[in-house]
Amino acid sequence: MFDMALRNLVYIALKYSAADRPVIVALKTVAGSVHIDVTDQGEGIAPHDAPRIFERYFRAESASRVPGTGLGLHLSRDIARLHGGDVALVPTSEAGSAFRLRLPLSS
Known about the structure:
Structural class: alpha+beta
């Protein structure tokens, strides 16, 4: 089921990235867990929206031009937590947003 969380993050990144900009997916292992970072090249998330980004039905100001329900990030985080992991917004040095899906390597 965790694949649904990853697909959701990639779908969201594609939705918010400019059509001519890549979405970057990177995987690494860190201290008994796997980190999958999904980075888009969109507008990014305003600092005042960041604390609420995982709330059910919340849509950031920058999302107003893109159709959606505000459930994708919430569901991805819930799924990750059901598997002993999490999803977090991570800082980037570029424009856009990056989300990290963290899952334990073994239960």
